[in-house]
Write a structure and sequence with these properties.
Radius of gyration: 21 Å
Order of helices and strands: HEHEEEHHEHHHHHH
Number of domains: 2
CATH architecture of the largest domain: 2-Layer Sandwich
CATH class of the largest domain: Alpha Beta
C-alpha cells in the first residue's frame, strides 16, 4: 500500500468514526497529492449538516496528527469568500485539490466544483492602498538588509526572512496568483514566477548559508522596480478607528 493509499484509508476510518452523519468529507494537503512525509499531518475537510461544531480542530488519530476543517454546507460559500480574501484560500484548496472520502448525496462534488472555480478565478487584486503599504514595508526591510553588516547575523537572518515573505506577497499579487505561508510559500512563489521566485529563494539561501545578501538585495531591487519602485518619503497611512470594549 502506498503512502497516499494508507492516508486515504486512515482518513476514511476517522470520518466514519467521528462524523458518521457528515454530508461528506475530503482529504487535502500533501497527503492527497502524494507529497506527505512519515510525520505529515492529514488535512481533512468535513461538511456538516449545520453550523454547530464548525471550526478548525487538531486531533491525533491512530498516532497521527490530523487537522480538521469543519464547515456546514450552507455556510461554506460565504466561508470560501472569506478564505479567498486572505489570498491563500487554505480550505478552498483542500476541496479543490483534495480527494473525496465520502459523498453520499453529492454535496462534496458541488463544493469541490465551487472550490475549483475559485482557484481558477484567483485571489482578489490588491487595492492601491495595499500596494503602497506593501511597497513601503518591503522598502523598509530592503534598506535594513543593505545596512545590516554580516557580523549582525541574528538581525540579518530575521530581516531576510521578512524580506522574503513580503516579496512573495507582492510578487504573487503582481501575477494575480495565490500566495502561501510555511512550505506553501516557496511552492506558490515558484508557481507564480519560476525565475524571480528562484532568484528570491536562492538569495535567501545566500544570506542563511554565507551571510551574503548581494543576490537577495539585487533581486528585491528588481522586484521593487517591477511594482512601481521603492516607496519611502511620501508614504502616508491614516489610522483606522477601532471600537474597544471594557477589559
Amino acid at each position: 500500500m502506498s503512502d497516499q493509499e494508507a492516508a486515504l484509508a486512515q482518513a476514511g476510518r476517522l470520518v466514519a468514526e467521528r462524523f458518521p452523519h457528515a454530508l461528506g468529507a475530503v482529504l487535502g494537503g500533501s497527503a492527497a497529492q502524494g507529497r506527505s512525509t512519515p510525520t505529515s499531518d492529514l488535512d481533512i475537510g468535513v461538511l456538516l449538516a449545520d453550523a454547530t461544531g464548525s471550526g478548525r480542530e487538531v486531533i491525533r488519530h491512530e498516532g497521527r496528527l490530523v487537522e480538521l476543517f469543519l464547515n456546514s454546507a450552507g455556510d461554506l460559500p460565504k466561508f470560501f469568500e472569506w478564505d479567498r480574501a486572505r489570498r491563500r484560500a487554505t480550505v478552498v484548496f483542500v476541496y479543490a485539490q483534495g480527494i473525496t472520502l465520502t459523498d453520499p448525496d453529492g454535496h462534496v462534488a458541488r463544493t469541490r466544483q465551487l472550490a475549483r472555480e475559485i482557484v481558477a478565478l484567483g485571489p482578489p487584486p490588491l487595492t492601491a492602498e495595499q500596494w503602497n503599504h506593501g511597497r513601503y514595508v518591503l522598502t523598509c526591510y530592503f534598506d535594513d538588509l543593505v545596512d545590516t553588516p554580516p557580523s549582525s547575523r541574528y538581525e540579518q537572518l530575521v530581516i531576510a526572512d521578512h524580506v522574503l515573505r513580503e516579496a512573495a506577497e507582492l510578487l504573487t499579487a503582481h501575477h494575480g496568483a495565490w500566495t502561501g505561508i510555511g512550505k506553501w510559500l516557496p511552492r506558490r512563489l515558484m508557481s507564480a514566477d519560476p525565475d524571480r521566485g528562484a532568484a528570491l529563494l536562492d538569495g535567501y539561501l545566500d544570506v542563511a548559508e554565507r551571510a551574503d545578501p548581494t543576490r537577495l538585495v539585487a533581486t528585491i531591487g528588481e522586484l521593487l522596480d517591477l511594482i512601481g519602485g521603492p516607496l519611502r518619503e511620501g508614504y502616508s497611512h491614516r489610522w483606522q478607528a477601532y471600537e474597544t470594549s471594557g477589559t
